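Quick one - inputs below.
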Amino acid sequence: MNEPRARSLLRVLPARVAGLLALVLALGLQPAQATVDPQVALTTWYRLVLELVRHTPTYSPPVAARAFAYLGVTAYEATASGRTEMRSLAGQLNALPPLPTRAPNLGYDEGVVLDAALAEAVAHFFGNTGPTGQRAMAALKARMGATAAKGIAPDVVARSRAFGTAVAEHVVAWSQPDGGAVVSNMGFPMTWTVNDQPGHWVPTSRIVQQQAPLLPDWGRNRPLAMPGGAACPLPPPPPYSEDKGSSFHAEAVEVYDVSRHLTENERTIAAFWSDDPMLSPTPPGHWISILLQIADRDDMDPSRTVDALARLGIAISDGFIGCWDAKFRHDLIRPVTYIRKTIDPAWEPLLTTPPFPEYPSGHSTQSGAAATVLTAIFGAPFAFTDSTHVDDGLGARDYPDFWTAAHEAAVSRLYGGIHFRSAIERGLEQGACIGARVNGLRTLE
Amino acid sequence: MKLFLCLLIAALPAAAQPGPAVPRFVEETATAGVVARYTGGWEQMVGGGVATFDCNGDRRPDLAIAGGTSEATLWRNESRTGGQLGFARARAGIEMTGVSGLYPLDIDADGITDLVLLRVGEDVVLKGKGDCRFERANEAWHFDGGDLWSTAFSATWEAGADWPTLALGSYIDRTQDAFPWGSCTENRLFRPGADGGFASPLPLTPSYCALSMLFTDWNRSGQPALRVSNDREYYKGGQEQLWHIAPGQPPRLFTEAEGWQRLRVWGMGIASADLDFDGYPEYFLTSMADNKLQTLTEPGSPLPRYADVAFPRGAIAQRPYTGGDVRPSTAWHAQFEDVNNDGFSDLFIAKGNVSEMPDFAEADPNNLLLQRPDGTFAEAGDTAGIDSLLTARGAAVADFNLDGQMDLVVVNRNGPAQVWRNGGTGGHWITLALHQPGPNRDAIGAWVEVDMGDHIQRREVTSGGGHAGGSLGWLHFGLGTQDRARVRVIWPDGAASAWSELATDAFHDLERDAPARRFRP
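Output:
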């Protein structure tokens, strides 16, 4: 590795690895064996994925969550295949057949296996990214692949690459019939019939594409760990009513009143968890980012990291399937529509209202699922700092445990004026139910 | 029983309005003699501009076209008045590779237009020598061309200055191949130097991967501000920007406290025009999928607050209207001009996929949105005949054969540049050129007003905007059925000329403090 390239790579590596490389460069030395630590391969590819999610227009939150699920399973199975203490997810996840196995008594390099698996899987799941994303994937593949192979016998490299690629191909093939493989028109139907009865969702923006709701059939996708999109149902929202004494109206008044008296901290929370598609790694990517930061801080080993990434990815992906199933069953009006009709015609919410029905809150469901899974893995209390948005000018925030973060993510949508309280509280409960199903998987012994 | 309303997503509120007169554009690419391509890969995914200006004193707009990995080229306009378009290649001294954009400007006020070349690499200023010849002037004018991926330009003359102030926008750090996001390089402001030429550039930071810049007097304060349209694909923490550029003061961003509202788009081009005749410009911002048409919410107030009226005005142009590809569009150069001479500015938009982006249309026709009297727009790209499905980037709408009808040139990425002659629709028109002594001879920053009886057409004279290219010279106004034209100029220093009654369907030179002179092509 020449020095400029190495210094360029420093920007994207976890702190501990980057520190070692920086030390090597500072001493003017070359590493004796420049193989890639599997953990470095893992976290470097995931950091690229967080960028690709942000910069690939198809990647709305449900679509991003799906990619995180399959990438997590890919990384997990590539690693688990070489470790006796890790149990394959085949037979545990819906329709996942047994994965390729390693040849007995032959050597594999774990860094090469993982790098090859992720290079293949990322190229597939982000095949529709633009020219810059394609260029970035090619550059990282070449750079990581070359580094990973240094100092290793060619036959081991070839065998490891072939195996990692085979694992990824297996997962990709398994993913294809799940209902989410093809996303057209960025997920918006070309035509849509709006229910014009009171209380139902209507378009809330003047963006042409968003005159139809995002991914109305996503709830019918095959989940990974739960049996179907309706596996974690939730009670209906308060009955729609425009009567001032009704519970529905009371929830709208709460959103309206909160919006008019927002504190600076509440504004910050709304912005911090906004996680807008194409301007952030999306809400599921935010939770993946939190996990990567913890993995870096705690110097987690690859097996523990892939276990957490797989379980978190599955939880948030199933979370969006369950949430979307409920959203289109209830097809509820957004606060901006209701409040302008019944309370204040000139009202403007703090955040831009997303283009799909209100109940339940997607942030809440997926955050509840994420907190359930991460708490099972790391326990509680478990303090962490979330620096996901530092590059975007939003400061880091500290949390004592995952549920505190999940509750904050959920209520941020009330502060933002885009969800009623029922969608938030029932969404968190739905997420907890979905997370519990993921916690039933047997992975790392 | 529930009632249902079926929404056709492509339908827009303005679609049912009666249509304005559609000009017939005749493509003359095959015969006009322009053989130019903007070529290249990743570093040429943006850019591809064209400059139109007169480089040989015959008053006909000549062409300078960016070539990317190919040489930039200059084309003398040899069109006969009212006849077919014709151009001839001239070896001009601009033939260098790496050029992404070009803007004409008489920097040294010698009456001969100079050129600013935006490049992937060192930017270059070229001094016009006459007869379509240019020579490098970086050193003579103390212009630090840097080594960036430059993508945006605008120029102004600050109050009292005898040398222009240039803003140059740049794009991505091209050394960051695996992680280019968040690597936007620095935009720069070149002000006059103490010893002539330019001073060392000031940083316009934060910089957010600018693809268009425009000095514009948005609030008619007499002091243009700098609008910057940024590509959200690559910035982090960024947004559209508006800079205070006050003489003698460092550049300073308008803040939310001053009324600036955060907007994040794939900003690629800026076009401006006073569409509603209130004296303040509207701004069209090109992007991917939905484009933005901004109008001041409180004209006359000090707050730069804009409402997006693209949707109700039918100017959203979010997807192809012909060609069968229904994926969202990608918009680049935009320009307001009255192409049917009915007295209402129309909007041309160059369209083309970035580079094999599967979520966006590959067959993406250019738009020609004709403005109706009620301010809404009707698509006429196909009926007018400019609905090319090549991958467009830069463009210019200009009257190449000096017949009072606005023609069109479009630069395509990895495809041939195209030219169209406007066959006209019959409305009256008037075309003007401004001249003043001393610096800023072309009166950048002036406003031209044309009295239409019940309203006034106003046009700000700017340098910059669009996508990677701009025009200098004639200013065209359609007049509809009005066969008389009262005209005045608000010169850049705020002095207003007297109203003059000028012949219509004619060209006039408006020299400051002198009677108008008719120019007969």
